[in-house]
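New to this. Look over this protein:
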Amino acid sequence: MIKTGYQDILKQELSKRCSQNQKYSLRAFSRYLDLQPAQLSRVLNGKQNISSAAANLIAEKLFKLERDREYFISLVELATARRSHAKERALQKIRKLAPSDSPVQLQLEVISVISDWYHFAILDLMALHDFNPTSINIASYLGISEIEVKFAVERLLKLGLLENVNGKLKKTHVKIATPNGIPSACLRKFHYQMLQKATESIETQSVNQRYLRTKTMSIARNELPKYFKLVEDFFEQVGKLVTSIEAPRKKDALYQLNLQLFDLKKQKNNRKGDN
């Protein structure tokens, strides 16, 4: 079963553009794709499909590689096929271009959650007391666009990290761990974004709002695992404190905890396979 739809690819592209430019909108994206805003909205919501001619034009605009263009067009063909033989032909092309369709979808979704900081922030916003998690409220709190919020919530719901209970979003009890096989660039992107947020806090927050601590030290390199273990134990204790019975039920702030432990010696660019 093919789980990736061409709509998902369009949503990802729109999210990327919104993250690069806070003023970017669905209307701007529709102009770029040569579609009407209302039409694009229906397409993204799964209420309408694009034509094969439009698929070809959009593929030319969005993708540099022929393989990516063919994959997108094949997904459109699958969505619009009415006869069984046409669907089977489209499926064969998709399998050829993306042989392992389920892992492709999982990889796309997990990468999105890991590499953009606001996915985790949205999850924990649900724990704030008296916070109404509408798109506009989440966007205002985090300083991102409503489009980014909309698509992020969709991804979190698909992954089972959020659930809709009587029309209200709630964080599930699913534990999050870094999955194997995710390209290291995605994790580096996430950490880079969080370091940027920490840097911004130096200028935008008072000393009563933030806690920044550093320690320069000489150590034996073969004892690094001991330091890693200390940090892991610390994070585990913090996690227990946040979820303990004694923790206040009425939470009113969303905080990010970062710790950095690294070698100050300049390294050669040899990060292949690193996270």
Q: What stands out?
A: Residues 99-104 have pLDDT under 50 and may be disordered. The radius of gyration is 22 Å. Residues 242 and 248 are 9 Å apart (CA to CA). Residues 6-99 form one domain.
